[in-house]
Amino acid sequence: MRSDASGYWSQTLALGHDEPITAELIGRVCDFYREQGTPAATFQVAPALLPADWESICSDEGLTRIGATVELIADVETVLAGAEKLPRPARPLRVEKISAVDAPLWASMTSDVFGTLPDAISEMFVACATRPNWHVFGVWDGDRTFPGACA
């Protein structure tokens, strides 16, 4: 994302799924970010997909590890079939739209789930709850909510 004041949105995801991760591929991605004037960006790569020369690639491109994120990828039908076998919660969970009143709690929890996000991102999440034609949902267990999704 060009001109990303938060430093959060410039990310490269799902590398290694469609083609092998190579020095040439990482070089192309880094060149793109450099051409756009992006001061920092994030690569999210599943450890099993890292090439044997990953440390060398990182050194050549000036990449440093700053943390870890879990990336989950699965076939939808497989997930749905597996979900049928899971135990059901003791009481039903419900999915509801997050109100403007609950938006700060939702934003804080979302920030915690993804790691500490810049304040500007949390403020953006709060604004999602009242943005016209946007709907923010959370999963509720009694009076407790869990992060959901924007739609």
Provide a compact summary of the structure.
It is built from five helices and five strands, in the order βαβααβααββ. It is α+β, with helices and mostly antiparallel strands and 151 residues long.
Features:
single chain, 151 residues, alpha+beta, 2 domains, 3-stranded antiparallel sheet, two-stranded parallel sheet, 5 helices, 5 strands, 14% strand
Question: What does this protein look like?
Answer:
This protein has helices spanning 23-35, 54-61, 76-83, 103-113, 119-128, and strands spanning 11-12, 42-43, 94-97, 136-141, 144-150. It has 151 residues and is α+β, with helices and mostly antiparallel strands. It has 2 domains: 1-86, no CATH class; 89-150, no CATH class. The strands form 2 sheets. A 3-stranded antiparallel beta sheet has the order 3-4-5. Strands 1-2 form a two-stranded parallel ribbon. Helix 4 (103-113) packs across helix 5 (119-128). The mean pLDDT is 82.
